Task: inverse folding
């Protein structure tokens, strides 16, 4: 059983996917904020995922066209709520990637007539807009020169609109936010592991099931905040759900008085959750977290789930070592 657990952990490290698509909103140091929309009363606009997506909810009955990077029509929010995207707009392809690292097809022509396709209904749509976030992977010089611990306004931005044929705009600001000290959250995880290893070693299956439920709650918040187009195929939820399922199976085996196999399943479930916490480690120091839940709850939930699972792994490893000797 020990070999089985080790093999599973190695396979997970090598083969398992990241918790979310690279293009989805992830932990970041940037927060983009909408300052106003003109004409007033045109639409509700917000930034989703710190600086990742612009989400526009059009007022019914208004005809809104979002301009692309060369002034061409890119998106159209029709009066009946239909959302259309121009296949000929270069922005259609550039916006598929957070950093615009794509090949634009020859058919894209900002000067050509629009070729509209329906992409949504209900008058709402979210998209990457490279005017609203920092496009380089390096830190802006204005941030590097700023005092430690201060929020920095990187730049103001505008997204041009046509509203019922008249010019308008979305105006906002991109801010850099200093990192969070990770040590309290790491200490919380270590403390959870110690408590489990010392006081709850006889309830390992229940602890892992509870840790899986906590991890799933954290993952649901990160999953639901994403626009539908940016959601991975449930990969944020995969590790917590697998952990819960294996721990539940272990509890069934324990009730059938099969503790040897049950211990192995518990160890596998704990390993899955430890790896999930390792994958999610950016939440401990990144200041802006894409989630429905407040950032402190995300950090605490990740630390507690990962720490408790690590405590279970430690007790299992100690028990296996004792058996081997």
Result:
């Amino acid at each position: 059983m020990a070999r089985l657990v080790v093999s599973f952990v190695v396979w997970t490290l090598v083969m398992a996917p990241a918790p979310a698509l690279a293009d989805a909103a992830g932990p970041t140091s940037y927060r983009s904020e909408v300052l106003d929309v003109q004409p007033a009363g045109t639409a509700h606009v917000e930034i989703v995922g710190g600086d990742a997506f612009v989400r526009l909810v059009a007022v019914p009955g208004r005809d809104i066209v979002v301009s692309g990077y060369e002034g061409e029509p890119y998106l159209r929010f029709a009066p009946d709520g239909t959302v259309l995207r121009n296949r000929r707009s270069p922005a259609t392809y550039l916006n598929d990637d957070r950093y615009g690292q794509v090949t634009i097809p020859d058919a894209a022509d900002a000067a050509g007539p629009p070729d509209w396709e329906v992409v949504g209904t209900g008058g709402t749509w979210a998209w990457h807009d490279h005017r609203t976030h920092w496009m380089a992977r390096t830190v802006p010089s204005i941030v590097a020169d700023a005092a430690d611990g201060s929020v920095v306004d990187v730049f103001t931005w505008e997204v041009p609109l046509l509203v019922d044929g008249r010019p308008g705009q979305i105006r906002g600001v991109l801010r850099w936010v200093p990192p969070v000290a990770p040590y309290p959250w790491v200490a919380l995880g270590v403390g959870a592991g110690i408590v489990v290893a010392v006081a709850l070693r006889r309830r390992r299956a229940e602890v892992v099931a509870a840790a899986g439920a906590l991890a799933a709650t954290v993952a649901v918040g990160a999953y639901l905040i994403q626009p539908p187009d940016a959601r991975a195929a449930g990969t944020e939820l995969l590790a917590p759900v697998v952990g819960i399922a294996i721990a539940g199976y272990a509890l069934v085996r324990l009730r059938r008085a099969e503790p040897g196999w049950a211990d192995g399943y518990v160890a596998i479930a704990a390993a899955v959750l430890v790896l999930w916490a390792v994958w999610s480690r950016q939440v401990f120091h990144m200041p802006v977290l894409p989630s429905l839940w407040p950032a402190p709850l995300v950090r605490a939930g990740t630390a507690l789930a990962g720490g408790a699972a690590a405590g279970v792994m430690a007790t299992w490893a100690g028990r296996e070592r004792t058996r081997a000797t």
